[in-house]
Amino acid sequence: MAYTKIIAHRGSRGNRPENTLEAFQEALKVSSDGIELDVHLSKDGQVVVIHDETVDRTTSGKGYVKDMTLKQLKELDAGSWFDPKYSNARIPTLQEVLDLLAENHFSGVLNVELKTDVFQYYAIEEQVLALAEPYLAQFSVIYSSFHYETLKKIKELRQDSKIALLFSKKGKQRLDLGEGIAVEGWHPKFSILRSLPPFEQSKIPLRVWTVNRKVEMQVCLLKNIDSMIKDYPERALQMRK
Predict the structure, then answer these.
(1) Is 51 one of the annotated active-site residues of the chain?
(2) Considering the entire predicted model, what is its pTM?
C-alpha cells in the first residue's frame, strides 16, 4: 500500500540550522523518506547548498552567494543564528551532502531545488546533474524549480531526469512546459492545495510544502498525498505510524 512520504525540508530545519550537514544528519537519523535542499553557485562556480540568494539570514556574513568564492563562503558561521552550539556549522557543497548521504546508506529521494528564479546561474544544471550522476544507483533524485527554463534544460540534458514544478499561487500549476516537456511532479505550497483540480491531482505526484501544523499533516495523510515536505520530519513520521 502506498503511503505519504516524509521529506525533510532543508534537512531537519526545525531542529538544526537549515541546509547544513548537521541538519541533513538529523534527517537521516530519524529515517526521513527524503531530503530537500537548495542550490546556488558561488563566484568560482561551485554548487553550494543554501536557500537564499544572500548569506545574510543564515550566516555571520553579508552579501550575495554569487559574489563570494567557496573559500569565502566556508569561512562563514552558518549555525550560530539558530543556536550558538552550532557555531561550527558551515555552508556545504552539494558534493559534501551527496557524500554524506552515500556514507549513511541513504536510499530514499533527494529533492534538489535549483534556485534560478532570481539569478540564472551559468551551467548550474549541467553541474548538478554531473554531481548527482554517480549516486543514482543508491538513491533517486528529483530536480525542482520555480523557473521553467531550468526544468526544461534539465530534461534536455538528461531525458530520464525527474523534474517537478514549484509554485505558491493558484493557477500556476502546469502539466507541461512546452516543447513536449511534461511536468512530472507538482510541489505546491500547502495553502493552495484545495485550489488544485482533483482530476489533475490524480495524474501527477503532489509533494506539498511546508507542512508543519498537525491538521496539515492529517490532511496530507488522509488524502494519501505523495509527499509532505516538513521542517520537523520526526513529527510526521510518528503521526504516520
Answers:
(1) yes
(2) 0.97
d(CA 49, CA 221): 29
Q: What percentage of residues in the chain have a pLDDT greater than 70?
A: 98
Tens digit of each residue's pLDDT (9 = 90 or more) over 111-155: 999 999 999 999 999 999 999 999 999 999 999 999 999 999 999
What is the spatial distance between Cα 12 and Cα 84, in angstroms, rounded to a whole number?
Answer: 17
SS3 content of the chain, % helix, strand, coil (to 5): 35, 20, 45
Classify residue 232 by its DSSP letter. -
Phi then psi for residue 108, to 5 deg, are: -90, -140
Selecting among 40, 51, 147, 187, the annotated active-site residue is 51
Task: Give me the catalytic one of 9, 40, 147, 187.
Answer: 9
| Helix spans in 104-190 (H) | 124-132, 148-157
Between helix 148-157 and helix 124-132 the angle, nearest 10°, is 50
β-bridge pairing 140-145 and 109-114: parallel
What's the topology of domain 8-186?
TIM Barrel (3.20.20)
d(CA 57, CA 226) in angstroms, rounded, equals 31
- For residues 122 and 40, what is the distance between their CA atoms, to the nearest angstrom? 10
Dump pLDDT digits (tens) for 172-217: 999 999 999 999 999 999 999 989 887 666 789 999 999 999 999 9
Residue 198, pLDDT score: 77
Active site residue 147: no
Continuous segment of H or E residues that includes residue 25: helix 21-29
